[in-house]
Specification:
Layout (H helix, E strand, L loop, with lengths): L1 E6 L6 E5 L7 E5 H4 L2 E3 L2 H12 L11 E5 H8 L6 H14 L2 E8 L2 E7 L4 E4 L5 E5 L6 H4 L5 E5 H6 L3 H23 L4 H8 L2 E3 H7 L9 H19 L2 E10 L2 E11 L15 H23 L1 H8 L5 H5 L1 H37 L8 H22 L14 H8 L3 H4 L2 H18 L8
Antiparallel strand pairs: 1-2, 3-10, 4-6, 5-9, 6-7, 8-9, 11-13, 12-13
Helix pairs in contact: 7-8, 7-10, 11-14, 14-15
């Protein structure tokens, strides 16, 4: 079976793409469309996403029109009952009559709002397999003019999601995680900014807006169940993400939701993980993976990982997340080595007990940064304590070497080759240095 995907600009011939290649198919949309309000149900939204995946941005569809196969369309939705044609017609009608995107864009000191019916024209016949879908001209800039602020995700992931809220939330999470991957590889953002993309936060008000539930699920328990819990169960089961969340209160009310996104060890779709044109990224990809794997192995074998787990500073999801564990191995564990040298492993354990007792919910968003900041703040205190109270150190400071011992490093036989006068001068120099080391003979203001 095949999907007819695009028109050639110079002819009426339509090129064909097989649905068997769906693992390679990707959807690319502007971030303003990702964060818009989709006033449509699951089926029209999935039809739109499928149609968008058929757009070739290097060979734009003539008259904003693409062609689908009805049989492929039904396969995409996994429907095979005798009523599928009627259901498809009804879904198209709803999409044209009721479905639209409410897009908000920054404009000057405020926002500009647009309401766009994405697919105003659909044509098909009962006796032909072909379905003609025409995009509205106003929606096209969000699908083809994508030089910046756009998100790319897998069609195969969307195919498996069975609720409107799952699709909307998956797209929003993809938008954030894509930025995490981009800036992690190329730089250009502070560390805390990069990590905020992997642990994005959204207010309950904003989440209600993008899921179009401002007037629905008034009870927080119902809202959480239908727009968070169940969608995330689908996303975790059927996409390349593992996502958890926590509620952040402001007073007695839940003000916002913080998500924690990790990539599954084996992604479902190798083709959409990186942009093919990003040659620099691809060239360094293998080296980075080797380094990451080495750091990950080092972290998993480290006694510090065991201590962090015992103190509940990291959990099983953290230990399965390559980014978290490599971050600990690279940025935190070398600092623990310094503390271990000064206080022993017991000293590290005492420090972690204190850190665990002071941990707040927000710090779980970036455990690497939290632990790094904590140990960086503690090490100078340890160094000062060792200067003031040497007995607290885990090691004995070496006894100061005598002048003769230092001299022997450079002139082992100096006593045999110096004159009596030179030896006397050396003894006098030693006596003066010893007096100064004892604080004698120093002028005090």
């Amino acid at each position: 079976m095949e999907i007819i995907t695009k028109n050639d600009r110079n002819s009426n011939e339509r090129t064909v793409c097989s649905l068997k290649e769906i693992e390679k198919r990707k959807i690319v949309e502007h971030n303003d469309l990702i964060t818009s309000v989709a006033k449509m149900d699951k089926v029209p939204l999935k039809i739109f996403e499928l149609a968008v995946s058929c757009i070739d941005t290097e060979n734009l569809p003539k008259e904003n029109t693409i062609y689908l196969s009805k049989s492929e369309l039904f396969s995409f939705f996994k429907v095979d009952d005798s009523n599928k044609h009627h259901r498809f017609k009804e879904a198209i009608k709803v999409m044209q009559k009721e479905a639209f995107f409410e897009i908000r864009e920054e404009a000057g000191k405020g926002f500009k709002f647009k309401s766009i019916v994405p697919i105003p024209y659909v044509e098909w016949t009962d006796y032909h397999d072909e379905v003609k879908i025409e995009f509205h001209r106003e929606i096209m800039p969000y699908l083809i003019e994508l030089k910046k602020n756009f998100t790319q995700y897998a069609l195969s992931d969307v195919m498996e999601l069975n609720s409107k809220y799952s699709i909307i939330l998956y797209k929003w999470l993809s938008m954030n995680y894509n930025q995490y991957e981009h800036y992690s590889a190329k730089g250009g953002r502070r560390e805390e900014q990069v990590e905020s993309y992997r642990n994005p936060s959204i207010t309950v008000k904003e989440l209600r807006e993008i899921t179009d539930t401002i007037n629905e699920y008034k009870r927080m328990q119902d809202f959480t169940r239908w727009t968070l819990k169940k969608p995330l169960e689908e996303i975790n089961a059927h996409t390349s993400f593992n996502v958890s969340y926590e509620k952040v209160k402001k007073g007695r009310s839940i003000d916002s939701i913080v998500f924690h996104i990790t990539k599954k060890p084996v992604a479902k779709n190798e083709y959409y993980k990186q942009e093919e044109q990003d040659s620099v990224y691809l060239e360094n990809k293998a080296d980075r993976e080797v380094k990451q794997q080495a750091l990950f192995t080092e972290a998993m074998q480290s006694p510090y990982t065991k201590l962090l787990g015992e103190k509940w500073l990291i959990n099983v999801a953290d230990m399965q997340d390559i980014s978290t564990m490599t971050g600990l191995a690279e940025k935190v564990y070398p600092l623990y080595d310094e503390l271990k040298e000064a206080r022993g492993l017991k000293g590290v354990e005492t420090h972690l007990s204190y850190v665990a007792s002071k941990q707040e919910g927000y710090s779980k968003r970036n455990v690497v940064k939290y632990l790094k900041t904590a140990i960086e703040g503690y090490l100078p205190t340890v160094a000062l304590q060792d200067l003031e109270q040497p007995e607290r150190a885990n090691y004995k400071k070496p006894k100061p070497r005598t002048l003769e011992e230092v001299a022997k490093d450079f002139l082992p036989e100096y006593e045999n080759i110096t004159t009596e006068t030179e030896k006397e001068e050396l003894r006098q120099m030693k006596a003066e240095i010893d007096k100064k080391l004892r604080g004698e003979g120093l002028d005090h203001e």
